[in-house]
Write a structure and sequence with these properties.
The structure is a homodimer. By secondary structure, chain A is an all-alpha fold. Chain A has 2 domains: 56 residues, no CATH class; 120 residues, Glutathione S-transferase Yfyf (Class Pi), Chain A, domain 2, CATH 1.20.1050.10. Chain A is built from 8 helices and 2 strands; from the N terminus they run ααββαααααα. A two-stranded antiparallel ribbon of chain A has the order 1-2. In chain A, helix 4 packs antiparallel against helix 5. The two termini of chain A are 24 Å apart.
């Protein structure tokens, strides 16, 4: 969102489960993201961050990532909520916890049954998004919006870990190929988790 | 929110787990709320509904439920997210499912261990909100906001079912007494679940 709006943003690595005092003083539930701007109070959570960035844009009109028309805006928020909370709660957070969280904390091997459940849930979610993308160019409708970046962020994470089966979801693959080829997406494709190589499709623009 | 803004709203009883075709055609994930206005597409989910109502107000300025100052707005969205998703996921949805959902579907008795976990989680959440309300008049800060209505909705539900221990949380009780005495809150206190009486404190303004 910041890159698309041309706002400079510097990322800092945070390990939320360490619950470091300096971090929980800012984010009491030890959740991410936290947006910090010098001389202003910290902004905690995806909704606060999205709205802070969007309101700031409102004073200097740009081709926005929140649609202007009421119906398109409602559809965008519906799907953004789906991705940030439902898809995350039923798929992404399990995969991240089992494959990365446990490993990073030295707590042993992934729970295979949790991963199996997450995979089955992912299949259901992708059926829905593939059906949606069969009838529109972007997740939220005719315009690119925050919903596209949210879904791309989740699928990119799952793809890195080898959990995306792109063959079954042609519409989603075509849409994701377009997202991937945007200049602002390129730095993400260079991201690497130390000691864990990305899947073959992760950075491939022609996957 | 609608009552506070003076927008007429008619509630319709929906039983989401029936997944009736007419309902899932509008809300594909069978989630609530759904906001329906004649001649306009349905608006699905809390974020879409909140933003639709708020944008509509933007053209006719009122004493808003979303704070105007950036820092207050960020704090409001942080806590609104906490209530709508974290408190709901860790407390309210378990209590509703075990005490009301199962019963309504004729699926037997509540899972005691789920209720015990929800109760323990509720205690932690309430410690936090009580600490917050010790230093400010409203959940989000110095102004009443959407966060107050969200928390009041959850606590009201839990109170109906006898799950609120008001003795332990004096700051929250004082705040909730103020919410309860607002005229727009009165009709909610008359709500009843068929065959399940409300707790003694539910409708009592002097609990």
């Amino acid at each position: 969102m910041c890159a698309e709006y041309g706002l400079p943003l510097e990322l800092e690595p945070i390990i939320p489960w360490k619950r470091e005092a300096e971090f929980t003083a800012v984010s009491p539930a030890a959740t991410l993201p936290v947006l910090i701007e010098e001389g202003a109070p910290a902004i905690v959570g995806p909704l606060a961050a999205i709205n802070a960035i969007e309101y700031r844009q409102a004073s200097a009109p740009v081709a926005g990532l929140v649609p202007g028309a009421a119906a398109a805006r409602a559809e965008m928020w519906r799907l953004l909520e789906w991705i940030l909370f439902k898809l995350n709660d039923e798929v992404t957070r399990y995969v991240l916890e089992e494959k990365l969280g446990k490993r990073a904390r030295g707590e042993g091997t992934p729970d295979v049954s949790a991963l199996r459940a997450a995979k089955a849930n992912l299949g259901e979610h992708m059926l829905y998004f593939d059906w949606i993308l069969a009838s529109r160019n972007w997740v939220g409708g005719g315009e690119m919006s925050l919903a596209d970046f949210a879904l791309a962020a989740h699928l990119s994470t799952l793809d890195y870990l080898g959990d995306m089966d792109w063959n079954a979801i042609g519409e989603t693959r075509d849409w994701y190929a377009r997202m991937k080829s945007r200049p602002i997406f390129r730095p993400l494709l260079a991201d690497r988790v130390v000691g864990m190589p990305a899947s073959a499709t992760y950075a491939d623009l022609d996957f």
